[in-house]
Specification:
The chain folds into two domains: about 80 residues, no CATH class; about 100 residues, no CATH class. The chain contains five helices and two strands; from the N terminus they run ααββααα. Strand 1 and strand 2 form a beta hairpin. Helix 3 runs antiparallel to helix 4. The longest helix has 23 residues.
Length: about 190
C-alpha cells in the first residue's frame, strides 16, 4: 500500500489512484442487488466461492501451510549469542593446524582446481613418458573428487548419496578393466 504522503496518480488523467480494498468476510452479502441476469450470476458465484472456500480441504490445507511457514520464520528469530563466529571465518585450515590459508573453503578448492589444471597443461606439453598418463588420470580423479565433495556438497550429505555415486563408478571401473583384459583379436 502506498504511503499516505505519496499519492499515486493516473498518467493519462492525473487523478489519484485509490488502493484496492482487501477482501473481507461476508463481502458477498454486501453486494448491491443485481439488476441484470449477469449481475445475479456474479453475485451467486461470489457467494458459492465464499462457501466453498470455507469448506474446501485445499483452502484449509493452504491456510495451514501458510501458518506453519509463518511460524517457522518466527522460530528463526534467535538470539545473536547463538551465532558462532568460527562458522563465518575467512580462513581455511589445511592439513590440521600447520597451514592457514585466507579465504573461504570454496576459494581454496577453486585455487586447488586451478593449480591442478595448470599442472595437467604442463604435463600435456612434456614428452610422453611412462608416468604421464597415470599422473593425468590421478589429477583428473583428484579434481573430480574435489568438485563432488565441495561444490556438489557430497561431504555434508547423507552417506547413501556417496554409495549411490560409488556403485555405478565401481561397475564402470570393473567393465573398463574387463575390456582392457580382452585381447584385440577376441577369443
Amino acid at each position: 500500500m502506498p504511503d499516505e504522503d505519496k499519492i499515486l496518480t493516473d498518467d493519462e488523467t492525473g487523478e489519484p489512484i485509490k488502493a484496492t480494498p482487501e477482501y473481507t468476510e461476508g463481502e458477498a452479502e454486501r453486494l448491491p442487488e443485481p439488476e441484470t441476469g449477469i449481475e445475479a450470476a456474479v453475485a451467486e458465484a461470489v457467494e458459492d466461492s465464499e462457501k466453498a472456500a470455507k469448506e474446501s480441504p485445499v483452502v484449509q490445507g493452504f491456510d495451514e501451510a501458510v501458518t506453519s511457514i509463518q511460524e517457522g520464520f518466527d522460530a528463526l528469530d534467535h538470539d545473536e549469542s547463538e551465532v558462532h563466529p568460527e562458522d563465518f571465518s575467512n580462513t581455511t585450515v589445511i592439513m590440521g593446524r600447520s597451514i592457514t590459508v585466507p579465504g573461504g573453503i570454496y576459494t581454496v578448492v577453486f585455487g586447488a582446481l586451478g593449480v591442478a589444471t595448470l599442472i595437467e597443461i604442463l604435463l600435456a606439453e612434456l614428452p610422453r613418458g611412462f608416468f604421464t598418463i597415470p599422473l593425468m588420470v590421478g589429477l583428473a580423479l583428484a579434481k573430480a573428487i574435489l568438485v563432488v565433495m565441495y561444490y556438489m556438497h557430497l561431504k555434508e550429505d547423507s552417506r547413501i548419496f556417496t554409495y549411490t555415486l560409488l556403485l555405478p563408478l565401481g561397475l564402470a571401473l570393473i567393465a573398463g578393466l574387463f575390456l582392457l583384459a580382452v585381447p584385440i583379436t577376441g577369443y
